[in-house]
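Changelog note: in this version the structure field was regenerated for every chain. One regenerated record is shown below for reference.
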Amino acid sequence: VQLVESGGGSVQAGGSLRLSCAATGKTNVLNCMGWFRQAQGQEREGAAAITRGGAAPLYADSVKDRFTISLDRADGTLHLQMNSLKPEVTAWYYCASGSNRWWQPLRPSEYSYWGQGTQVTVS
């Protein structure tokens, strides 16, 4: 499985960005997909997660009501719509996926496949 993120960039506070993650390869083995972020000097943390089967998405408290995760089941692309952006969300954002059960989907160690990341800067 290969994951490729796109859509990062620089934006002013209050603005919006939409991240996308294209999944290729043996995607039929995947169950959970998520977005994680890692700020400079910080550990990687989960922002939002979803299952390919349609379970209700899960969000970290810090992004709830501002971020929306979605999966285009037609082509398997994962999206993260980020609104009302604040400088504190500046980080590298990573797409992840795996065959893991919906147990702790915001825990990075649950995932087997990772993208290369896309940088988001809010000023």
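Spot check on this record: Residues 28 and 99 are 9 Å apart (CA to CA). The mean pLDDT is 95.
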